[in-house]
Amino acid sequence: MEKTFNRSKTIQYFKRCLDLLPNNYTSNDTHRMTLTFFALSGLDLLGVLETEIPKERRDQWVNWIYAQQILPDENNPEINEKICGFRGSPFSGLPFNPNGSRVSNLPFDAANLAMTYTALACLLILGDDLSRVDRHAIINALKYLQKENGSFTQTYLGMECDMRFIYCACVISYILNDFSGINVEKAVDYIKKSQSYDYGVGQGPGEESHGGSTYCAISSLYLLNRLDEGLLSKNQTIFWLLSRQITGFQGRANKPPDTCYSFWIGASLKILDSFEFIDFKQNFDFLMETQTKYGGFSKWPEYPADVMHTYLGVAGLSLMKVPELQELDPVLNISFHAKERLKTSVIFNNN
Amino acid sequence: MASYFKANWDDLIPIPQDDGPEPLTPISYDKEYSEAMSYFRAVALKDERSERALDLTEKIIRHNPAHYTIWHYRQQILFSLEKDLYKELDFITDQVIDNPKNYQLWHHRQVVVEKLNDSSKELPFIKEILSSDSKNYHAWTYRQWIIKTYNLWDKELAFVDKLLDDDVRNNSAWNQRYFIIFFNSNEPSEELLAQEVQYGINKILLAPNNISPWNYVKGIIAKSKEQDISVLEGLCKELEEQSIISYHALGCLVDIYESRAKRGSIEDKNLGIKTCELLAEKHDNIRKKYWEYRKQVLI
Predict the structure, then answer these.
(1) B246 with B201, same domain?
(2) Which of A248, A310, A251 shows the shortest CA–CA distance to A284?
(3) How far apart are alpha carbons B155 and A112 in whole angstroms?
(4) Site from A198, A210, A308 to mutate, B interface, most B CB atoms within 10 angstroms
(5) Is there a single domain that holds both residue B208 and residue B258?
(6) Which residue range is the domain that position B187 belongs to?
(7) Domain boundary pick from B177, B196, B227
(8) What is the pLDDT of residue B2?
(9) Which pLDDT does position A113 carry in this prediction?
(10) Active-site residue B101, yes or no?
(11) Do A203 and B20 touch (CB under 8 A)?
(12) Do B214 and B255 belong to one domain?
């Protein structure tokens, strides 16, 4: 029997995640905001965020997101300018404050680029007008996170730097409508150098082509308006992407297919106007194999569901215009409906 | 556990996490993790760098090896107390074996090795991790960093040879091969590039539908002044004569026919169309729409 997408179980799965995640998510404690993003954007793609969640609760959630914002110190903004942006969760121990915090309790506390990106995306999804976002502080902090080679690191404390954080920096700059925090020439140079001999893109120069880093590179070039110049051969990159389809999509050559690449590779093809070349049926059938009995999607068939693969599975279905799913902007990875809200945001229009 | 905190942390008032009235995606923490984090907040507030704080970071890491703030704090403590960093490497090795895909752990190892300025244990360590997953992206990223930073290029080709003998489909190993040839400071000779093309062709003959050596050979040819795509055309024809079907060979022929058709060859145009049809209908059916598009371009 042909399997079908189970809408109601997927909705219940996301709602359970928003209420409480099981203990095995503890290793995601510092980046809880990304898990929040997967669950919220999931309900948004399903078109039920407003009907399933009462307004009062959504407003409280907006407050929770703002509580993770690190704002400049009032008396001396320079002392914490490098750490401004959003944390992933309230792990630093400050009292809850829906306006964010201007102090840091921990000597090793800092905002994180991936959390700032997903926090801004969540605010748009929840219909917030971004009026409490300190745009200047976030854009200013970006300057301290870009490396000499053009890549970005996720926090000022110093962590690995690679393609993922160029993408985060580009989406943040797009949402805040200000690219002055990015040295564009250096970022484009890094992306160019990270293209491999097979025309996929690695996390950095010399590294193996990978579906995730290729998505980050293509989306970044798109947002920087440098797609034509930045890809060494658009046609060859399209062929590399298409070659990843096995049934569903693999992330690298000779690896098994995995739910999340239906989004990472699918969205990359969509941006390059070549999504129509894929085999829809095989992609759909693979995703139905990773849909679990209890709701949610797993990485591989017969594995337990997790919130990231559930979201990216739904996003992959949305790219294929599966009925009753909102359409997804492949670059920002939020619904077009949520993206539209940018036009009414305080920040986007206040240049 | 309660007695541990009582015995060691009696002088501090733990600071609990304040998640507000309506938290998003809260996690059902273990009691030990919550308690350890509460003491961490209190001790980090004082920036205390002590044995007990070091011990506390270890307890937290065992629950959450991705806590980058804890790793950063641990580094400061290790360096302030001038701890034996070789012991720390052993600790990291154990942790990586349990969490081989954890970004923070690999980064922590890099910080410690930089501080020690001793890379002697690294290649054996990475080899051990690759032995259980020869395609671990983190391990390869780290390996490239070690090789570049400490100039350890000498034995790398032999290492990759062995991996490709074990598994000719290991694309990470093929990528590493390219890295060795083009990312060290010496420009590769044409003689070396010719050898590499031949190496790749020999591996294609072992498994003609393995995409990795096809991409590798094309990559080498693109960088070479003397090698060109006609080497691959010979190979494709050879496979055809032996009735071996390889959709990578057919795809490669489409590129070759198309380039000649553009220069006016009717024969190549027709061969290209025929090959696209074969790929679309039979040998690469999953990319049917793509090959039909390539056919339309030829027509």
Answers:
(1) no
(2) A248
(3) 38
(4) A198
(5) no
(6) 153-227
(7) B227
(8) 57
(9) 97
(10) yes
(11) no
(12) no
Smallest Cα–Cα separation from B194: which of B162, B166, B164, B231?
B231
Do B203 and B161 belong together in one domain?
Answer: yes
Total count of residues recorded for chain A: 351
Q: Are A245 and A301 in contact (CB under 8 A)?
A: no
Chain A: give the shortest CA distance to residue B44, in Å.
6
- Tell whether the torsion through CA atoms of B218, B220, B221 and B227 is positive or negative: negative
**Of the residues B101, B115, B237, B282, which is catalytic?**
B101
In the predicted model, is pLDDT for residue A302 greater than 80? yes
Residue B53 lies in a domain: yes
Task: Tell me if A197 and B178 make a contact (CB, 8 A cut-off).
Answer: yes
B136 within domain boundaries: no
Decide if B15 and A252 are in contact by the 8 Å CB cutoff.
no
Residue B57 in domain: yes
* Apex A264 CA angle, A246 and A293, nearest 5: 70
Domain boundary among B199, B227, B255: B227
ipTM reported for the complex surpasses 0.90: yes
Q: Which chain B residue's Cα is nearest to A60?
A: B22
Residue A287 has pLDDT above 70, yes or no: yes
Give the model confidence (pLDDT) of B102-111 as tens digits: 999 999 999 9
Q: What percent of chain A has pLDDT over 70?
A: 99
In a domain, B124, yes or no: no
- Chain B positions touching A19 (Cβ under 8 A) are 26
3-state helix, strand, coil in chain B (%, to 5): 70, 0, 30
Number of domains in chain B: 3
CA dihedral (A50, A52, A55, A60) positive or negative: negative
Together in a domain, B271 and B246: yes
Instruction: Give residues with Cβ within 8 angstroms of B256, minimum separation 6.
Output: B229, B232, B233, B236, B268
Q: Which of chain B's residues have a Cβ under 8 Å away from the Cβ of A98? A: 20
| pLDDT digit string, tens, across residues A137-185 | 999 999 999 999 999 999 987 778 899 999 999 999 999 999 999 999 9
A321 burial level (CB within 10 Å; 0-12, 13-18, 19+): exposed
